[in-house]
Automatic annotation (TrEMBL):
Record domain Aminotransferase class I/classII large: where: 43-383
Subunit structure comment from the entry: Homodimer.
SUPFAM superfamilies named among the record's database cross-references: PLP-dependent transferases (SSF53383)
Known EC number: 2.3.1.29
Keyword Oxidoreductase: no
GO terms for MF: glycine C-acetyltransferase activity; pyridoxal phosphate binding
Family statement: Belongs to the class-II pyridoxal-phosphate-dependent aminotransferase family.
Coiled-coil intervals: none
Name of the protein described by the UniProt record: Glycine C-acetyltransferase
Cofactor: pyridoxal 5'-phosphate
Length: 396
């Protein structure tokens, strides 16, 4: 029998979300998550995936994944520290270290897992973490897991960061202090002010941790935000994901050899959760090789995103202050945002509404993720639909 407490908790909470327009309906994609997707039999221009470089459906990645299944089977069979470490995992980690320009890399099952793993392997209740207020949920949860004191810093406010770093150091309360930030902020597409963050970190002897989930594959010729600013030697933890631009699944932390050695013996998802499958590891390695060989995919990504941004701006949409391909269309009200996204869908564009709690209340938006796999014709068609729906709903 179900607990009556649970039943009343769930029905009250679900009703609450639905009445505020905050309940997210999930639409299954029928087939590949490419530039065009099919949902309920309907073809749509896809502006919602994180598949920035189109690698999720790349033939080269598919081939090595199939080959890996033939040779290694479908599962790694164990956690990394028992005997789930295949030669494929080490090859991926070596490639990633070369790509990122660091001494070593440890890979995990996801980017989310990296943040669960790495922060609490190093930080504890006697430490403090200076965390940007717009940091990703996995950073927030990773910080909480560590039990360190979390000091929220106003978004990209360097005066606030310096002030709070100074106070934390002068308080004498903490053993170690870390500053942690997204490299690219996923809801607005702005880039962290890493050169200033690193200067402040050096002034106050803070550890630096950059979560580059949306920077990897996109900035710094694909190697990420830290490389973009030339700061490889000045950032302690470079976390990245293999699930977004790399097109597969997984995550990694790049840094000094000793840090990686420590994470390999201390970080719990590495010790207690099964290693990534052979096919995924092989496909990720292939993707990194492709990115190291050529910037063709990145160039096309940036061309497409510049084109889409220019088009939306000319139509009169508020696209915020994005510096990357992430292109929000800020609508504001949650219900209006969902209505806008629904009408885009009916007209043939899949651009998901993003509302509270993913973004602050009153900052609802439809977030567009152009990729290198989109053609100009697709983007033109999307812009025509944006114009129609924008005028119809009185947004432009
Ligand atoms: C998506 C994302 C993650 C999680 O990465 P996964 O590999 O999808 O688990 C972590 N941090 C940020 C900033 C992200 O955008």
């Amino acid at each position: 029998m179900t607990s009556t407490k649970l039943t009343s908790f769930l029905s009250e909470k679900l009703e609450g979300l639905k009445s505020q327009g905050l309940y997210n309906e999930i639409d299954p994609v029928e087939g590949a998550n490419g530039a065009i997707i099919t949902i309920k039999g309907k073809e749509l221009i896809n502006l919602s995936s994180n598949n920035y470089l189109g690698l999720a459906t790349d033939e080269r990645l598919k081939k090595v994944a199939i080959d890996a299944v033939k040779t290694y089977g479908v599962g790694a069979g164990a956690v990394r520290t028992i005997n789930g470490t295949l030669d494929l995992h080490l090859k991926l980690e070596e490639k990633l270290a070369a790509f990122k320009g660091t001494e070593a890399v440890i890979s995990y099952q996801s980017g989310f897992n990296c943040n669960m793993a790495a922060i609490s392997a190093v930080m504890d209740k006697n430490d403090a973490i200076l965390s940007d207020e717009l940091n990703h949920a996995s950073i927030i949860d990773g910080c909480r897991l560590s039990k360190a004191k979390i000091i929220r810093v106003n978004h990209s406010d360097m005066d606030d960061l310096r002030q709070k770093a100074k106070e934390a150091v002068e308080s004498g309360q903490y053993n170690k202090i870390m500053v942690i930030t997204d490299g690219v902020f996923s809801m607005d597409g702005d880039v962290a002010k890493l050169p200033e963050i690193v200067d402040i970190a050096e002034e106050f002897d803070l550890m630096t941790y950059v979560d580059d989930a949306h920077g990897s594959g996109v900035l710094g010729k694909g190697a990420g935000t830290v490389k973009h600013f030339g700061l490889q030697d000045r950032v302690d933890f470079q976390m990245g994901t293999l699930s977004k631009a790399i097109g597969v699944i997984g995550g990694y932390v790049a840094g000094k050899q000793e840090l990686i050695d420590w994470l390999k013996v201390q970080s719990r998802p590495f010790l207690f959760s099964t290693a990534v499958t052979p096919a995924d590891v092989a496909a990720s390695t292939e993707a990194i090789e492709i990115l190291m060989d050529s910037t063709e995919l990145q160039n096309r990504l940036w061309e497409n995103s510049d084109y889409l941004k220019k088009g939306l701006t000319q139509l009169g949409f508020d696209i915020g202050n994005s510096e990357t391909p992430i292109t929000p269309c800020i609508i504001g009200d949650e219900k209006a945002t969902q209505q806008f996204s629904k009408r885009l869908y009916e007209e043939g564009v899949y651009a998901k509404s993003i509302v509270f709690p993913t973004v602050p209340k009153g900052k609802g938006r439809v977030r567009n993720m152009p990729t290198s796999a989109h053609t100009k014709e697709m983007l033109d068609q999307a812009l025509t639909i944006y114009e129609k729906v924008g005028k119809e709903l009185g947004i432009i």
